[in-house]
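re the bet — no i am not wrong, look at it urself. input seq straight from the record:
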Amino acid sequence: MEEEPTQIPASEFRPPEVDRDRKFSFLHPSIPQVGVMSLAAAGLHGGVTGAHFEAWVGYGVFFLVSTVLQLFWGGLALVKFWESKEALNDPYPRAGVVSWESSFYRAGAWGNLAIALLYVFTRIWGVPFVGPSVGEKEAWDFYGVATTVLEVLIFFQALRMSGEVKRGEVPMSWNDLHREG
C-alpha cells in the first residue's frame, strides 16, 4: 500500500532562498540605452536597404548585413540584461557569468564605428571599393547623419562598458546593486 505524500500547509510553505551574492553578467546599467540605440540604427538601416538593393545588389547586401548585425547585437544585449535582472530574484536562475561579455561589447563598438566611418568616408571622398558608384560622393542626409550619430554613441558607450566589465567595476550581484554607500 502506497503512502500518501505529506502536504505542507500553505501557511508553513517557504520558497527557496535566493543567493544574493550569486554573480551574473550583463547587468551594466547602460545596456538598455545602448541596446535601444542599436535597434534604432538597425531600423534606420533596414528602412533604406531596399533602395540600396535597387542601386546595386552589393550595396543592398551591405545594408542588409548591417541591419541584421545591429538588430542581433542590440536584441541580444537587451535579452541578456533582462534575463540577468530577473535572475537576481530567482532561486533557480538560468543566467550566470559568461566569459564573453567584454568581447561582446567590443565587437559592437568596433562594428558600429566601422559603419559610421564608412558613411563619413562616402560623403567626403566617395564610395570606396566596388559597385557602380565607386568614387562618387554621396549626399549628406538627415537619416544617415542620425544613424551615424547613434553608431558613434554606441561605439563610445560599448567600449566604456567593455573596460568597466573587464576591470570588475560593474555590479554583478543583487548585493552589489543594493549596497549602500
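see?? The mean pLDDT is 94. told u. also Residues 34 and 157 are 7 Å apart (CA to CA). so pay up
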